Amino acid sequence: MAGVTALTFAALCLPLLGAVLAPFLVRVLGANAAWLLALAPLLAFAHFASLLPVIAGGEVITGGYAWVPSFDLRFSWLLDGLSLTFALLITGIGTLIVLYSGGYMKGHPDQGRFFSFIFLFMGAMLGLVVSDSLLMLFIFWELTSITSFLLIGFDHEREAARRAALQALVVTGGGGLLLLAGLLLIWSTTNATDLSTLLQSGDLLRGNPYYLAILILILCGAFTKSAQFPFHFWLPNAMEAPTPVSAYLHSATMVKAGVYLLMRLNPVMGGTPAWETLLPLFGGVTLVVGTLLAIRQTDLKLQLAYTTVSSLGLLVLLTGFGAPYAIEAAALYLMAHSLFKGALFMVAGIIDHETGTRDITRLRGLKAAMPLTFAAALAAAISMGGLPPFFGFLAKEEIYAALAHADPRSIVFTLVAVGGNALMFAVGFAVALKPFLGPVLATPKHPHEAPPLLWVGPVLLALLGLMTAVFSATAHHYISSPTASAIRGSASVLEISLIPHVGLPLLLSALTIALGTLAYWRIDQARLAMATVLRKLGPGPDRGFDYFIVGLIRLSMRVTRFVQPGRLELYITCTFLCLAAILLVPLWLYGEMPTLPVWPRQVQIHEWAIFLLAVLGLFSVVIARDRLTAIVSLGIQGFSVAIIFLLFGAPDLSFTQFMVETLSVVILALVMTRLQLSPTDRRPLGQKMFDGCIAIACGSGFALLLMKATQGPFNNALTEFFNTYSKTIAHGANVVNVIIVDFRGTDTLGEIAVVAITGLAILALIRIRAQTERKLAENDPDAPEDLGVERP
């Protein structure tokens, strides 16, 4: 097991190694670096594939390393059928995406940076699906949002790319914060810090009084990440990213994260009325909306993007449906969708790369020039349409076996699934057939077959869609059944094959094909009809996002103007008001006011003199007519305190106080010589009284707090610790110095660094001012005028 742990950790680190090496290898090898870089995900894929027999045998592999043991936080992973399937998809398709990127981005000046982003994205998603720790899951969850932001906005010089990246980050990042709240509720109410413990808790989470709150928070995180209605709008806009990103994003990575989370939590959160209502409802609406919007598009990538939205809705619907075969159907469709959607996106990228356009209305007759691409596209479309002999057919048959029941709820969702699958059938074959068949149309670039780096990915994925269906028994044994078992939380065996379910599921499949063929035949008219409907409906969620951002900016500006009007006096007043409240309110609210002591009679005459000196200094500050007198008088307070420290046996502290007060008075006096020194106070009497009350409240609060602290029992644990270890550890006899220099050495270093940086900044400003004065004296027209120096 130790060997498996070490190899798993190495497999998780391989994408990060690829991110580091990519820029250097691309600089040396150019586009051919893709062949070498693809070894990183390929080796990770090989490791995870080697675990298939173990996982198929019903075992669960856990491992990791302690991070913060006192809080039971670990960098840990959980490998079962679900996480292993996702790991294989991420690393396997990731290998093909790296190769595809080498050909697609060939000659791009930032190809090395692009590879680094892809590998970081791969590592974040891989860490998410194998994480056992709830905290690590959330960290990787947010890393997928950040890395996708970098990839979507890769062409940052285009405004559309920047907007799409920002939109994806805001939507998924906002959902991530809600997910964090849900995970913290799970943590605090169940004491489970990892998924393996949570999955063994039975009905503990379902019976939790905060179950509904946890469910809503988890769904918000999952729905935003997996683009469920009404958060679906960010995913098609993410098509501003280069096509390798789109293919990876839609087939195996980020958008599947929300689906993964719902499947992962199904054993402990599923089966409740809320779960079986919310998931099918939002999933069904997303399925319908996605397919209808896909029909509207003419851009190949946008057509595929909206069908991904609908497919994600179908997966969410199946995960929460709660009927027999629903979980099995979700497991099958998860695999089938990854294979055919990855291939179709790569095909769309090849068409764009080799013809210069993705507009389906401008593409015809490419079959002769691109036969291999056409074959891969047709195979993927057959699987997407749910036709034999591809794996998509098995998934569609199992979907109808799960949904086709006689109750009204099942009938409604069956009709939704049939309509959605029919429209996806039409869009899939439109992408695969219309650009390749018919008379040749002129394109911006002369079309020809793509180089191997581009076509190897879609061809292999299309072949996998065929082979997994032909050898379905093997695929079910090693992948489908373990995946469904992990989602269900109990053993599940899949037996669906190319021999379809006889009865209603087969009739529904035939109906889907008939409706899909009709929609494909009239797809141009359907596109115009959808455009008319959308135009009458008005702005959708995408435009609503813009309104939201504009409103948020306006609100933030108004709040900023209210809380930060630019008056230092107001800031100081608010600060001291809050300080007085913090000091006094808890003491009064919780009955912790100290007992006022009787004034000690042992105060000696020289001590009275020091107190009197401090009071006279305070009075001098209040009545001073100019700032310089107030500064000097203020120093009297510090010197009086320093003398008190000296009399009570703290010479080191007294010396420090003397130095601080001397430097403060000198520096303030030097600064004030650059300003107008009189008059010192223009406030009206009412303002002075208000400020005086605040000052008295703060002073009284500190006095009462210190009195309360001194009236309690003294805990000398720290005193004994420092007295015991000052010599043995720090080799110093002066305990105060040892505390400052050794035990609190980092604090002292930070304070020194702050002072040094401040001094350097002041020195730079002084030099700039001196240079400005010299230039103004020489009547230099390039001298700045905003440093408070007037021209002669």
From TrEMBL:
Residues 612-676 form the MrpA C-terminal/MbhD domain. GO terms for biological process: monoatomic ion transport. The keyword Ligase does not apply. One of its GO terms (molecular function) is antiporter activity. Residues 689-767 form the MrpA C-terminal/MbhE domain. It comes from the Bacteria. Its main location: membrane. It is a multi-pass membrane protein. Residues 69-115 form the NADH-Ubiquinone oxidoreductase (complex I) chain 5 N-terminal domain. It holds the Pfam family MbhE. Keywords: Antiport, Cell membrane, Ion transport, Membrane, Transmembrane, Transmembrane helix, Transport. The chain crosses the membrane at residues 6-26, 33-55, 75-100, 112-129, 166-190, 210-235, 277-295, 304-325, 331-351, 372-391, 411-433, 453-479, 499-521, 568-588, 608-624, 631-649, 655-677, 689-707, 748-766. Residues 131-415 form the NADH:quinone oxidoreductase/Mrp antiporter transmembrane domain. It is found in: Cell membrane; Membrane. GO terms for cellular component: plasma membrane. This is Cation:proton antiporter.
